[in-house]
Specification:
It is built from 3 helices and 2 strands, in the order ββααα. It has a two-stranded antiparallel ribbon. The protein is mostly helical. It has one domain. α1 runs antiparallel to α2 and α1 packs across α3. β1 and β2 form a beta hairpin.
């Protein structure tokens, strides 16, 4: 059954798009070393790995170590990649977390 995207107005099928659209937050997220490892594991699955993504992983590592204060772009990237990665991991039966 198709639904209409609240922002785009486009029709989509939630079962083929990873589920219903959720109102997600990123403001109260704590960036951790384990989370950064998961983000890096996820982005390195793509070939070639984008340099912009690797630079963001470097930023996230600095944030997790307390060497850099997180900006909204860091929090959004971190939460997006964790969510995207967890969906990918669940779709593969023989994955291992880093």
């Amino acid at each position: 059954m198709q639904e209409k995207g609240a922002i785009s107005g486009r029709l989509f099928e939630p079962s083929k798009a990873g589920g219903k659209i959720l109102k997600l937050s990123y403001q109260e997220v704590k960036i951790t070393d384990r989370g950064v490892n998961l983000v890096e594991f996820h982005v390195r699955r793509f070939n070639p790995v984008g340099q912009a993504e690797l630079k963001m992983v470097e930023r996230l590592r600095k944030v997790a170590q307390g060497r850099l204060k997180p900006e909204m772009v860091d929090l959004r990237f971190y939460t997006h990649e964790l969510r995207e990665g967890s969906i990918s991991f669940m779709q593969v039966s023989n994955y291992t977390y880093p």
